[in-house]
Amino acid sequence: MKKKIFRIILMIFFNCMVSYSKEINIEFPKLPKLEEDMAPPLLPKDDILEIDNEGKIIGKRILEKNTTVYLESKVNVFVPLEIISDIDIETLIIDDQKLEIPFDVELNRTPEKKDYYKLHYSETEIDIDQDGKTDTHIYSSPFINTKVKTDNLLYIDGEKISKEGTFKKKVYMTIEIRE
């Protein structure tokens, strides 16, 4: 008996939920037509009578000239130079091993000016194990002249790492303008 009452209450509850739902009408803006589909707007050809709210003629607008004007617009779009690659370097250092790890930095396009843009790192000398000795260095040529910058090097000196473990470090790269 309790199961039947519970089912009836559930049916009433769901019925009430459905009966209170509202239909939502979303109107999307009309997209402009393509240039070849566009026709010039129709222009008035006759004089226009001006009528007030009571229906009386209060004047007449005389059409003196009718002209169609076509405008052309050009937009100069500037796309900034951006770094589009994330670089994750994972390596294993054994004892006093010294490693040189080359890495590439990819940009969204080739710079339009030579020797104008610089790659800047938030840190170039890093103490990866935080023991007070700088053990990791990032080397890179000063200017960006290609879409893929390939002359970057991460140098790790295992002699200066005194602690064992897994170490992580984030270094941020930005593009600067030579001034």
Give a structural overview.
This protein has one helix and nine strands, in the order αβββββββββ. The chain is 10% helix and 26% strand. The strands form three sheets. A four-stranded antiparallel beta sheet has the order 3-8-6-5, with no helix packed on it. It is mainly beta and 179 residues long.
Quick tags:
179 residues, mainly beta, four-stranded antiparallel beta sheet, three-stranded antiparallel beta sheet, 10% helix, 26% strand, elongated
The total beta strand count reads: 9
Uncertain stretches of 5 or more adjacent residues: 17-22
Query: Ends: how far apart?
Result: 85 Å
State the helical fraction: 10-25%
- Supply the helix-strand structural class: mainly beta
Principal-axes geometry comes out as: elongated
Largest sheet: 4 strands, antiparallel
* Proportion in β-strands: 25-35%
The H-and-E topology, N to C, reads as HEEEEEEEEE
Quick structural summary:
By secondary structure, the protein is mostly beta strands. The chain is 10% helix and 26% strand.
Layout of secondary structure:
Elements (H helix, E strand, L loop, with lengths): L1 H18 L28 E4 L5 E5 L36 E9 L10 E5 L3 E2 L9 E5 L2 E2 L3 E10 L15 E5 L2
